[in-house]
Amino acid sequence: MTSAGDFLAIDDTIAAISTSLGRGGIAIVRLSGAEALAIVEGVFRPAHGNRDLASLPTHTLVYGHIVDGGEVLDEVLVTVMRAPRTYTRQDVVEINCHGGAVAARRVLDAVLRAGARLAEPGEFTRRAFVLGRIDLAQAEAVADLVSARTEVAAAAAMSQLAGHLSARVDRLRADLIDLLACVEAAIDFSADCLDLLSPADLAARLASLAEGVDSLLARSRAGAVLREGLRVTIVGRPNVGKSSLMNALLGHNRVIVTAMPGTTRDVVEETIDVRGIPVLLADTAGLRDVDTEAERLGVEMARRRAAGSDLVLLVIDGSEPPHHDDEPLLADAAASARTLVVLNKADLPLAVLRHDLPTCLRDEVVALSAKTGAGLEDLETAIEAWVWQGNSASCEEVLVTNIRHRQALEEARAFLCTACQAADVGVSEEFIAHHLHAARRALGLIVGETTPEDILDAVFARFCLGK
Ligand SMILES: Nc1nc2c(ncn2[C@@H]2O[C@H](COP(=O)(O)OP(=O)(O)OP(=O)(O)O)[C@@H](O)[C@H]2O)c(=O)[nH]1
Ligand SMILES: [Mg+2]
Q: Of 83, 85, 159, 467, which has the highest C-beta tally within 10 A?
């Protein structure tokens, strides 16, 4: 294992298998560093002519074989990409070899024997960051894109990779630095600069900076959901149709459904895509007082999963008259901002009506039939609306998806708010300057300008091998 300090060494040549390790037609072994061409040269025999890789123009593809002594290890296509127009800004060579468990490994071993070092997870992208091709937010977007679970999540990652978030943060930082210069000038030459920065000007510019940060924070909850997935738990009394709803949302019969109350015991989890939102959906045991050990444990697990979820779907059997066991569940739902009530079995005559429900829940209820599928779309619409909370689902607007970025923005906002309050009551410019510096450092964490080494290590450790 490489230590954090070695990680920044960018003068050796690294190699890794950049494709996933399962069975596949093609795998790519990638090298980056000053010796990349020379190392591959040592193990590559071109099929036609005697052309050495070093003499090839950049961005060319050569057909041939990887050899070890006299033995041919694989038939390959080698791509030569010279610095600086490459992923890392260093010389990069990619060897397209055969996929599967053995071929790519043999090619990788050959280049390691020829002098390359095995790359750490994320090390190619870290070089792109260290060498200034991308900033930290863009580097993180690479990992997000690779692990995106839905189209919308991938689009948000692509937008961040294209630098849209970085551009917004850079604009805020530029405004901040501009204001800081005025404040510091006022400290140095107080009398002359009063015209430059009146108290009203200062307050207005601080407020506008805080608004800029706020507008990025406004959509960070939806952004986090796109990246991490929305944890949704289906709860309710036994036999109300929780498992039927799970199957209906999944589109196939994943969990057992019977007419006997107490069918489901375990928490069953599946991931689904609801209008581009990755949803980690869980079906749970029916909530009731029980005697058997297995069902009691099931009820406990259901409560725990519900407590740890972002959104709870409380299922009520709409075909039966109001049931007193539903009352505590509805009371909990009324007290929480994260429950949607589902009136199931709407294909039967409804015996529970909206006015049987607590007032604050009446507008939020979705009536549906898990059996026929009627009304499922309304539930999807309700989930979607809950996530976006009135903001559109469009990714053209910059979306903060990363918790680290959200924390940095919250930190910056706190410093700006303190500066605003200080300006209101006429506290010294030194105090305001100090807080503006702190806000600037907090924003710098997002793009990697002020990010300490240990945080960089943690960010890149999340990457997969070969990226
Ligand atoms: N008519 C009708 N019947 C339904 C509907 N949804 C579920 N059922 C029936 O209700 C019964 C219970 O369904 P389940 O999905 O097993 O209910 P559950 O809430 O998971 O039950 P437990 O796991 O025991 O807590 C089954 O007989 C289902 O066929 C529906 O929308 N309409
Ligand atoms: Mg069930």
A: 467
